[in-house]
Amino acid sequence: MDKIPILRMGAFLLVTIQVDLYDRLALNLEADLVQMVNKTSAKGVLIDISAVSIVDSFMGRIIGNIASMSKILDAETVVVGMQPAVAITLIELGLPLKGVHTALDMEKGMKLLKSMIDETEEDADEDQTHDDFIAE
Amino acid sequence: MMTLSLSKDTIQVLKEQDVVFLKNRIKETAVKIKMGLVNQTRLLTAASELVRNMMRYADGGVCIIEVVSSGRVNGVRLTFSDRGPGIPDIQAAMRDGFSTGKSLGLGLPGTKRLVNEFDIKSKVGQGTVVTILKWANG
Q1: Could you tell me how far CA B11 lies from the centroid of its own chain?
Q2: Is residue B56 less than 8 Å (CB to CB) from chain A?
Q3: Each residue's pLDDT tens digit, B65-116
Q4: Domains along the sequence of chain A with CATH
Q5: ipTM of model over 0.95
Q6: pLDDT tens digits for A90-121?
Q7: pLDDT at A131
Q8: Nearest CA to CA, how far is B32 from chain A (Å)?
Q9: CB distance B52–A88 less than 8 Å?
């Protein structure tokens, strides 16, 4: 049984999807990822789909699900590296992936995640100096 | 205009592994007729939707991959046929957001938007046949 590895990096979880997803693999990833968010109290999830050439309505729904599930577990999700052809297809299919943050590449995605987490931390406890959050 | 069939390939789809095999064969066919990358993606996404329907509602079926030619342009025609329960109301099934399963209901209408030609025939109790066609550059 194939499995998509989930790597932990500080407060983030990194997932790089290197194969074309089929349904069961995607469902397993959804379950594993939400478990991991809970177990590691991750603040952000970064999903790299640069190697994925097909995202159909089912995969799109899984990506949306992961984002909403992580959100209610207090983690933000950013999807990075979508191929242009996949973006075209998704919109024509009628799946705009609302509520999912995206970035062009890993680096920009990381920056976006950090900025989102900084914001929520500031809201949460304003008396705390946020130097340690900004420190890279 | 006359559409000629140049090659024909029939693939049984019963298990999840067959789906992967089928997608690879469709991709090979699309590459062979020099279909552009975006159109390849559209065709494969459409096929992915239809094969999922076939697996979910009819426990599998058969897909015929054809290379067709109309004058100077080539295209790929896919015919998905199953012996499932059939679709009682095709008009409803073709509407965005309609689903009898637990999906988003984008499968059939979304697929139609991705391809050049789309045809669906279904008889309750006998099965469903969906035919799609994507030209190499169109």
Answers
A1: 12
A2: no
A3: 999 998 889 999 999 999 999 998 888 888 887 777 767 677 899 999 999 9
A4: 6-134 (3.30.750.24)
A5: no
A6: 999 998 888 899 999 999 999 999 998 887 77
A7: 53
A8: 18
A9: no
| Top-confidence range, A15-24, A80-89, A93-102, B97-106 | A80-89
Other Cβ atoms less than 10 A from the Cβ of A7: the count is 11
Q: How confident is the model at residue B1 (pLDDT cuts 50, 70, 90)?
A: low
Q: Give the Cα separation of A118 and A113 in Å (integer).
A: 9
Say if residues A32 and A2 touch (Cβ distance below 8 Å): no
Contact B110 A86 (CB under 8 A): no
Q: Which of B20, B37, B106 sits opposite A95 (nearest CB)?
A: B106
B12 φ/ψ angles, rounded to the nearest 5 degrees: -80, 135
Contact A5, A36 (CB under 8 A): no
Amino acid type, B8: K
What mean pLDDT is reported for chain A? 88
Instruction: Average the pLDDT over B45-63 and give the result.
Output: 93
Can you tell me the distance from the alpha carbon of A118 to that of B118, in angstroms, rounded to the nearest whole number? 49
Measured torsion, CA atoms of residues A55, A59, A61, A62, in degrees rounded to the nearest 10: -140
Q: Which residues of B touch A53 (CB under 8 A)?
A: 41, 44
Kindly determine whether residue A54 and residue B48, on different chains, have CB atoms separated by under 8 Å.
yes
- Domains of chain B and CATH, by start: 4-135 (3.30.565.10)
Which residues in chain A are closer than 8 Å to B114, comparing Cβ atoms?
89, 92-93
Instruction: Give the DSSP letter of residue A56.
Output: -
Q: Are B67 and B95 in contact (CB under 8 A)?
A: no
A92 CB neighbours in chain B (<8 A) are: 42, 110, 113-114
C-beta atoms of B113 and A94 within 8 A: yes
